[in-house]
Design brief:
The structure is a homodimer of 337-residue chains. By secondary structure, the first copy, chain A, is α/β, with parallel strands linked by helices. In chain A, 42% of the residues lie in helices and 17% in strands. Chain A has helices at residues 4-11, 15-22, 30-43, 49-56, 77-92, 111-118, 133-140, 162-175, 192-206, 223-234, 248-260, 294-310, and strands at residues 61-66, 96-99, 103-104, 107-108, 122-126, 145-148, 156-160, 181-185, 215-217, 242-244, 270-275, 288-291, 320-323, 326-328. In chain A, strand 1 (61-66), helix 5 (77-92) and strand 2 (96-99) form a beta-alpha-beta unit. The interface between A and B is large, with 56 and 57 residues. Chain A binds a DNA duplex (30 and 30 nucleotides) through helix 2 and helix 4.
Chain lengths: 337, 337
DNA sequence: CTGGGAAACGAAAACGATTAATACCATAGA
DNA sequence: TCTATGGTATTAATCGTTTTCGTTTCCCAG
């Protein structure tokens, strides 16, 4: 392994000068610096990340917390897309992404411990139970952090405009003639309240009285629960003609329930998703849905995290960025019969 | 930050003893060791990963190379599932996963350089252009490495039984009455030859003469090219009655082409995918496909990589593990009309 | 020619851990 | 009583960088 010492030897200068030359720091003559850099390049010198991290307390590593209840955050397509956007920006700035776990040397540790252990420069939090005490601990430590769909006091965060998303969806359903519009929401946490707000806002503007029996809970990305919730709605004396699903993926459960009830989408029941997952563009009927700009969310999160890292220590107020959504008409909303 | 030195001070022993006690090494008395470990725990001591890595040349970090041509490996569902299986096993052993990129400190570097820079203990290679010179360079260095769907000389690898997968698919199509069975394969590299082998093996056993015009190339996961390839097949004077698609995702393109030709799946044309992506279970008609056991592949890869890390330096021959696939009947194969 | 100051360079101390070599000190055997 | 033995503990070197601070060199003004 080529080290500073080796370069120093070959150039007949001190290790200190080599370090300065390579990092373009003042304190070393221009031509000497050039000579040093040339031989460094010639020898294929690469700084040792561990040594640098040890000395500078900067690892250029970002921790990624991407888990859901089933510990399968990687399989959640929306968040993987977000992560991909995040990754691109971070990589441009020379950061590496680390999938955080809770095992270090075969012992289970907390997220915060992992952070300290690995000298992480920052943490990206998405698709997780935000009220996890370990996460709160992490957020209360002074680790630069950015989160999606949730704000931690004093940290940056990125959201889609959830209110507007559901609002637009309801408006569209109404425009197509629907009056009995139900909402199967995700668990009562995180973005759910915002989405519900959009739902009620639209109903109220349209002069439709909200019905308690038209709002039932499922879970995000939960096909089984959404299946059951849809059944419940269909069993009502006066069933809805249009159902807003928790998200695109969960809507598979809804569609299944509708099919199994002998009904068709959208002729008998209209449905609307949320997320705008790519593959839904290719299955027919194309899902009407509220598309989030996953890539943009990830990129924005990255920029915010870079900012937080930059200003580490200084007491910068956390900012929350809201990104627009786009309603996609699709083919699963038809006039009620 | 609490360090060994701090613990040593509090216990009135030397740093060396603390290190030994914490790592359960001989050379320190049982009761002293216990006392040291107790105060370490009390102080919330965590070893500094950078210092350890610097001293021991072991980072407990694994590099993950998950990219396709579009630099979007994370979005490839099959490989993300593989990665998830891989991750679970690795985490159990206390390893962290790092998404490898080619930017370090704003300068672009090669995979191998990144490896050295970050002291990676091993590398996981999947979903990538295996002939990339940088990858070859990496494989020729003595970095422990495991790959999916491709074998690098001297390294471990994991495959699905690709021959058998396509073989079974063709057999099933034949059993349902098909005789004109076409194959749209992925690019002529990697697993493609094995899959083609299965295709030809089945045809030959069934006494069906292979037709050159029934085998066309597309790309894996490429909806557009698969759309075009399907069109090409449908335009034949004697079009096939059943088409094997490069993979599940690409099959969307095939379905679209079939629809746009005014035909129906499976009444007019039968199709079969490859991969067994989860979400296809929920769209109707349910895709007939060859399911790979993604999780098992990832787990197996992890075990092999651990083995390679264990035996680093020793000249262990690379082993290649083949995992069984399962044909899923689905609903997209019907008797030809 | 000298004194002063800036620029170039080097020595050395960290960062936090691991580990070989060594010192210490009982106890046991001769 | 002296020496070997074995277990505990410490000393010190080291991993590869960064960074402070002191020293040297050199140039130019006085």
């Amino acid at each position: 392994m080529v080290t500073l010492k080796e370069i120093a030897r070959q150039c007949g200068v001190s290790v200190a000068s080599v370090s300065k030359a390579i990092n373009h720091m003042p304190g070393v003559g221009a031509q000497t610096a050039q000579r040093i850099r040339d031989t460094a390049r010639a020898l294929g010198y690469l700084p040792n990340a561990a040594a640098q991290a040890l000395k500078t307390n900067r690892s250029f590593n970002i921790g990624v917390l991407l888990e859901d209840d089933d510990n399968h955050g990687l399989l959640h397509q929306f968040f993987v897309s977000v992560l991909d956007g995040f990754r691109v920006v971070m990589e441009e700035q020379g950061y590496d992404l680390m999938l955080m776990n809770r095992t270090v040397g075969k012992r289970t540790i907390s997220y915060l411990e992992h952070c300290r252990h690995s000298n992480l420069d920052g943490v990206f939090v998405a698709c997780i139970d935000f009220s996890d005490p370990e996460l709160l601990e992490l957020a209360n430590a002074n680790v630069p952090l950015v989160s999606i769909d949730h704000t931690y006091e004093g940290h940056h965060s990125v959201y889609s405009d959830n209110v507007d998303g559901v609002y637009q969806a309801v408006l569209y359903a109404h425009e197509r003639g629907h009056r009995r519009i139900a909402y199967i929401s995700g668990a009562p946490a995180g973005v759910t309240s915002k989405r519900l707000e959009g739902y009620h806002k639209a109903l109220s503007e349209l002069g439709i009285a909200p019905r308690a029996d038209y709002h039932v809970y499922s879970r995000y990305r939960d096909i089984h629960r959404t299946y059951a919730a849809t059944q419940q709605l269909l069993a009502l004396k006066e069933p809805p003609t249009c159902i807003l699903m928790p998200d695109d993926y969960a809507s598979h459960g809804g569609q299944l329930a509708i099919q199994n009830a002998g009904l068709r989408v959208p002729q008998d029941i209209s449905i609307i998703g949320f997320d705008g997952l790519e593959y839904f563009k290719f299955i027919s009927p194309r899902l009407s849905t509220v598309a989030q700009n996953a890539t943009a969310i990830g990129e924005q999160a990255a920029r915010l995290l870079l900012l937080a890292i930059e200003n580490r220590g200084k007491d910068i107020p956390g900012q929350s960025v809201k990104l627009p959504v786009m309603f996609i008409k699709g083919e699963t909303v038809a006039p009620p019969n």
